[in-house]
Amino acid sequence: MFRFLKNVFAFRQPRPLPFAVLFTKFQHILERNNSILGLMADMGDKLGGEYVFDRRYIEQATEQLGDQVFKLISDLSVLAQCRHVELFVAFERIRHLLWQELSGQTAVTGERYVLGLDEVGYDQVDQAGGKMAHVGDLRNRLGLAAPDGFVITTKAFFDFMRQDGLLEMARDGIAAWDGRDEKGLDELAAEMRRRILEAPLPRGLAREVTARADRLLSGRRGPQSLLAVRSSAWHEDGDSSFAGQYATVLDVPRDGIIDAYRAVVASAYSATAWRYRLLRGYREHEVGMAVGCQLMVSGAVSGVLHTYAPQVDEGVMVADAARGACRPVVDGSAPAQTVVMERDEPYRIRSNGDSPLDAALARELAGAAMAIERYYKRPQDIEWTFDAEGVLHILQTRPLRFRPAGESARDDLDAASRDAEVIFAGRGLAAQRGVASGPVRMVRTDADLEDFPSGAILVARHTSPRYSRVMRKARGIITDVGSPTGHMATIAREFRVPALVNAGVATALLRDGEEITLDTTRCAVYRGRIPALDRFELTEEDAFEDSYEYRLMRRLLKHIAPLNLVDPHGENFLPSACRTYHDITRYIHESAVNELISLSERQGAACMSSPRRLQTSIPLGLVLVDAGGGVECPGDTGAVYPEQIVSLPMREFLAGIDSCGMWCTEPVSVDLGSFMSSVTRTFSNSMSSPRAVGRNLAVVLRNYMNVHLRLGYHFNIIDAYLGDTVNDNYIYFRFMGGVTDFIRRSRRAKFVAEVLERFDFRVEIHGDLVVGRVKKLDSARMSRRLRMLGGLVGYARQLDARMHSERDVSRHVRTFIDAMGAVIGGEHDE
Amino acid sequence: MSESTLQADRLRILVLDDEPIVCKRLKPAFQKAGYEVETFTDSAQALARLHETRFDIVVTDLKMEGADGMQVLSSALEASPRTRVIVITGFATLETAKESFRKGAFDFVAKPFKLGDIVECVKRIEGELREGHGRTDRGVGPA
Questions:
Q1: Which domains does chain A have, with CATH numbers?
Q2: What whole-number distance in Å separates Cα of residue A269 and Cα of residue A259?
Q3: Are A547 and B34 within 8 A, CB to CB?
Q4: Which of A54, A413, A523 sits opposite B21 (nearest CB)?
Q5: What confidence tier does B133 reach under pLDDT thresholds 50, 70, 90?
Q6: Is the CB of B130 inside 8 Å of chain A's CB atoms?
Q7: pTM
């Protein structure tokens, strides 16, 4: 009993570790935090297509990241003496999800029976099947109209099929089949279909499907309340078309949905479909059938379009059209008229036959078709219909298979690129691989984005997430300055717009309106349109974005990169609310700072000086911990004055804060209702109140300081060593966060980065996170830079609310540098 | 292949990696740069092909089931000493790099790598071949 109590006692009051050990832990946390953010950015960067990576890389990177996050939690547990069990739980939850993704287990099918079309895209292809994943992309990425509806997932399929051992029956049946007995296969298929059509649906599935249908159909009557129930199997409309192999049931009333569902599922086991799969080398475990339920559209004119038809002529697309619905054109039961149109704008009509498709509709259709082709980087086979009101609906799209680029395509390519005039080549970094032709559109101000012409190539000095609003119109993007890990690059990848950043000379060499061809695979820009380059891209065997590894990487990153814990003062700033590795990292960073402050409060007096409030003229809320030789004053006072500080870096930093006159104190109103997409939230940060200064922390030694400063909306970290040994000297500066819209925050990040670069910092920007490093300068130069940072911290505070245009960035840089001149004594660059 | 035919013909490249994604990415990139490309995910098949016909450049992964990259490197050079071999690997260590070079590799590239970099490497080889530098000039061939 005594021993037990002793153990409990020992647990409750652990022997405190020396502060020096804990402080080292704290520094490790900072380092690890940075390396984790770096790893996440690297993984995102790989999605642009410039890198060749394999599955091993994905596994290694994921494992490395997990390892780092685990150690980060361990570091915090030491620092906080084991109080963060919930973080380990959150970590295990995320790691398990990642493991499931990597091992292709249940994460593949997800947990839900029904998904709305607005939740579906190619990354959900495993849950929604090929056909509906495409339909989701059309609506959500390309902004095209496709009939509204929902998807009954592959998870529903597997639960349904496992219920009465149907899945086993199929797998065992085909495993036992000798490959020759055609009659045997027919019998197996017939038996499967019979049993599927009779099988009850799993508990909850039928209920969920009818509830969803009721919502979709509410307020609709008559023909308007009918549904199309369509197959959407794994691999359908992908590597193999499976065209016509699986069932689609049209004109289904509400009460017929469940039967139609069974019929579509059963069609996966028709003898024809089975033979098709066997012929194409699919294995039985690769059969997964999602089912799409969409509103019927009563078509006025419908048909099929092929975006590329070299058998007719190079540079044309072909549409077969007929009055009424699409189905008779697809299955060939009704005569259709052929329209031949050019692939380039304005999509001139070469021949029209007697087609019911008039010129205006044809052009609209052609524009939509080319948008789809550009997105998938493949010629497309598109089923479409115009309703009575003349609205275009895309019913289905699948890649049009061509033989791989043969001799002739490559000869054309060689000839074309030999003859082409190169405007520049080998410059810049490919943020998204691809080829695009079109007229140049220079973007200098927001007004240039207002009337951005569809099909143009955006050329600008800097990258900017503002361009997201024209992503659907832009064929390509070229910037003089920018990084492939920035936000714009992420958005370009999302929309698959070929993007070349950091090309240096684009705005100087290109003229508004001139026709160019951008080939980011060669980091080159050619004069005029070069169709051969484009065509080569179209006949490559597969678009890299659709390959398994890229899909896997995107799915993994969903559990890694988004930041949900944005507000340290918010109710959900809790370990249990961490849904991604980024959340955990963010939480730990915040906790570590708090922990260090309270640690030094608790045990500081015993081991070192107790924390004291720094009395400054400006409200910094700075708690100072002297870890050795940083302060000269009696140990028992609660306050410390700037003149008592002997820590060299701290003195310089405070001098910069104090003397520059850059402390803007007037309140600035902030517009909170601004645009913030899921993408741009990835690296966003703390959203504390502007006036909440809170507890900020500085740990100082004679030659060292580590400062965590949250001021208004942002968060600064400065870690610096300043002494006589040049090789030991360094400054690490990190700047994050802000509460205004992302655009203004990124302008402010740009401002900080430009200033740092002028002072020789090596700068990295990830969204609105700026990291600057400078090292190995003599102490005089280091001192000037620390003073400059004091000024910068003051100046940048709330600056984002003042950044109204891109021009403000350079204006503020000039103002700041000029003002700084007085403080640091003349020219900064010695 | 004599130099005159080399001038006229495209360089022939064999790519071997057991992960199909690597072949899938490299093939079109090399084709686009104007080369003939054959890809393999199985080293036995690649070795058979190497004995059947000559390639100017072999790009091979290191760790694979069956014959590994080192064996492929040696066999490729045995079959045709003028062939240049680029080793690509996700397990890049100083040791494996040294061993690759000792066995006559032209270059050693750690995965993941940029497509631009590997195409650049192939262009360097092409430049040397077209200038008529024999392998022995570089002194890296097997003794």
A1: 2-103+570-585 (no CATH), 114-295 (3.30.1490.20), 299-399 (3.30.470.20), 407-540 (3.50.30.10), 646-824 (no CATH)
A2: 16
A3: no
A4: A54
A5: low
A6: no
A7: 0.66
